[in-house]
Design a protein that fits this description.
There is one protein chain. The protein is α/β, with parallel strands linked by helices and 520 residues long. The protein folds into two domains: 387 residues, Alkaline Phosphatase, subunit A (3-Layer(aba) Sandwich); 74 residues. 38% of the residues lie in helices and 14% in strands. Helix 9 links the parallel strand 5 and strand 6. Helix 3 packs across helix 12, helix 10 packs parallel to helix 12 and helix 14 packs across helix 15. The chain starts with 12 loop residues before the first helix and ends with a helix. About 8% of the residues have low confidence. Bound molecules: 2-acetamido-2-deoxy-beta-D-glucopyranose (3 copies). It catalyses: a phosphate monoester + H2O = an alcohol + phosphate. This is Alkaline phosphatase.
Length: 520
């Protein structure tokens, strides 16, 4: 755990960066025409030497209230007034709307980050006309940089997918897997480091737990293409040559609160391993590396309205950010820029409720103290209980493990009534804790709220201000000297690939139902 106390001194540094609003972003320049593809925005008039490496960090579904909730928890826990590591890295805000919705999903927003273009909800590296767009990762690979994707979701999930694959709908994860490893990709293999979850889209439908609809063994194909593939902690801890593909879980990796460190490494461990391996592999070459690191599951906990999952994944994101920032400071021989921003807010989280007595308002993070697990596993554990002391078990093994030490009689009887429905009980449990904390959730989905922009390292401050999300893609390209346009042309020239792997069949209609069918 980072030591918040030692960080107090630099706390004010971030504010001056916020005040330096960006000069050339006025009068809705980016609001009018989302598709102003890869034009220069002279972002970096005052730029000195460019970076060798670029780290893009996406805390998925992380809104401003989430940051407050976590910081105040740390204040309570450490009895301090220190700030979070990310508080010191604030450089601005990001506006996130998609082309077809004021409220974006991860696919559209991550496409803005990877390609520098706005697209529709569900789009994976394609524009509104389903045309593939060159990504910063692909362009970096073509220019001789090494590349990485490090996530806690399935590696085929929307955010990582938009950096190394192109397809009209985010749910087509079997196809995304084959593109990501370079098999169904016109540029071949473009990713050198891949770490995360989601083995189920790489194993043939004849294996238990597979999510594929076909008999393709994508792990075997990955090995043929040169990847070392693995799924265990011991191999992760050993020295590995690039390229490698480490998938630790069948589905998403565990929430930080539920994670078994003997089986799954933390986000921080994966990110630092990625940085070290990419650094070593590029030490003697002209170009450095590009890596996208995603704290994927902050978002999932937001969808579930689960404050425990949300909090601990936010703290894990902070630990990873602190470690990466220290890594950058320690590797001045290989200058690095880090930009981090969520793709959107999730849950419509608010921190605080009104109470009648003084001080008039309530947020009490002390209720987080007893929480040892997220609502999902606890609900399954409760559904599986066959003993005779239902009330005692519910109180001490379920409620208490979720931070609710004193459930009311009413809550106990309702909990017993909901025992057989894990999903209903799970919602009920999250509500019991949320109301004690004084946090509220407006929705089980995303909201249009702006998200905070964080930066560190070379030239990061030149990106300060209020930004449209697709400016992030342009900034990365500019810093690394990448030509996205030429990659887009390369991709679009391959008609057979587009017909087979990218575009929907004739007559396809985008439907909202499609979009909501995906599992987060
Ligand atoms: C919290 O910090 C304050 C000021 O440093 C101190 O007076 C107080 O005793 C501390 N409380 C606890 C519980 O440590
Ligand atoms: C088009 O992409 C496919 C990958 O699906 C690749 O096998 C093929 O070589 C590419 N064709 C050209 C002309 O680049
Ligand atoms: C597995 O995939 C093959 C095609 O590769 C298909 O013929 C078969 O029906 C699938 N089996 C199941 C159980 O889905």
């Amino acid at each position: 755990m980072f030591n918040v106390k030692s960080l107090l001194v630099v706390a004010l540094a971030g504010f001056s960066a916020l005040a330096a609003a960006h000069p050339d972003n006025k009068n809705g320049k980016y609001g009018k025409d989302h598709k102003d593809n890869h034009n220069d925005h002279d972002d970096d008039k005052h730029e000195s030497r460019g970076p060798r490496n670029f780290i893009m960090v996406v805390p998925d579904g992380f809104g401003p209230a989430s940051e407050t909730m976590a910081r105040d928890y740390m204040h309570w826990k450490d009895n301090s007034t220190a700030v979070l590591p990310i508080d010191e890295m604030v450089i601005g805000m990001v506006r996130t709307k998609a082309t077809d919705s004021y409220v974006t999903d991860s696919a559209a927003s991550a496409t803005a980050y990877s390609c520098g273009i706005k697209s529709y909800n569900g789009a994976i590296g394609v524009d509104d006309d389903y045309e593939p767009c060159g990504t910063v990762l692909e362009a970096a690979h073509l220019e001789g940089f090494k590349t990485g994707l490090v996530v806690t979701s399935r590696i085929t999930h929307a955010t990582p997918a938009t950096f190394a694959s192109h397809i009209y709908h985010r749910d087509l994860e079997s196809e995304i897997a084959l593109q990501e490893i370079g098999y169904a990709h016109p540029l071949g293999r473009t990713v050198d480091v891949m770490l995360g979850g989601g083995r189920c889209f790489f194993t043939p439908n004849t294996t238990e737990g597979s999510c594929r609809k076909d008999g393709v063994d994508a792990l075997a194909i990955a090995r043929d293409l040169g990847y070392t593939t693995f799924q265990d902690r011991a191999t992760f801890d050993s020295e590995l040559k690039l390229p490698y593909l480490g998938l630790f879980t069948n589905d998403h990796m565990s929430y930080e609160a539920d994670r078994d460190p003997a089986i799954e490494p933390s986000l921080k461990e994966m990110a630092i391993k990625g940085l070290n391996d990419l650094y070593r592999a590029t030490k003697d070459s002209k170009k450095g590396f590009f890596i996208m690191v995603e704290a994927s599951r902050i978002d999932h906990a937001g969808h579930a309205n689960d404050p425990v999952g949300h909090l601990h994944d936010i703290l894990a994101y902070n630990e990873a950010m602190l470690a990466m920032r220290e890594w950058i400071d320690e590797h001045s021989d290989s200058p690095t820029t880090l930009i981090s921003t969520a793709d959107h807010e999730c849950g419509g989280l608010t921190v605080g409720k009104e109470i009648s007595g003084p001080p008039g308002y309530w947020y009490d993070p002390s209720f987080f103290a007893g929480a040892k697990a997220t609502s999902g596993p606890l609900s399954k554990q409760w559904a599986a209980y066959t003993g005779s002391d239902q009330k005692g078990y519910l109180k001490s093994e379920i409620f208490a493990k979720y931070g609710v030490a004193q459930p009311t009689e009413q809550e106990l009887s309702e909990g017993i009534a909901l025992k057989s429905s894990a999903s209903k009980f799970s919602k009920f449990l999250t509500k019991a804790l949320s109301s004690r904390l004084g946090v509220n959730w407006a929705t089980g989905g995303h909201t249009a709220s702006d998200v905070t922009l964080f930066g560190w390292g070379v030239n990061s401050k030149t990106f300060a201000g209020s930004r449209e999300n697709n400016e992030v893609g342009h900034f990365i390209a500019k810093q690394l000297g990448l030509d996205l346009e030429s990659v887009t042309k390369k991709l679009q020239s391959n008609e057979t690939w587009q017909a087979d792997w990218v575009k929907p069949k004739a007559g396809h209609q985008r439907s909202a139902r499609d979009l909501h069918s995906h599992h987060h």
